Amino acid sequence: QVQLVEHGGGLVxxxxxxxxxxxxxxxTFSSYHMGWFRQAPGKEREFxxxxxxxxxxxxxxxxxxxxxxxSRDNAKxxxxxxxxxxxxxxxxxxxxxxxPRLLPATAQRLTVPDNFQLWGQGTQVTVSS
Length: 129
Known about the structure:
There is one protein chain. The chain is mainly beta. Helices cover 3% and strands 49% of the residues. A hairpin with a 4-residue loop joins β7 and β8. The chain is globular and about 40 Å long.
């Protein structure tokens, strides 16, 4: 069973950058599409970005498009989220998640939290104005 652990959260000023990483253990990392979701206080968990198991498909929420990038290194069992031009509205707990690669990598499918079976514990990102 894959276990996911996020790293890299913290406090940053608006306009700044932050890089989140997620490391997996206990399974075959390349068997999963990897996603990032976030949840702000009082709000539902929302999709941020996803990358397919083979790095051929990436997709971003409109709110982060052009500011965030996602990458993975299957040899190191790591997926990263590079966040730039951060805004106060990006403040949230960010979660790493995994969805089995046997299911097709489509935006419709991989933006829904219920389609991700594995989740990390989350890391707090706070953007000050």
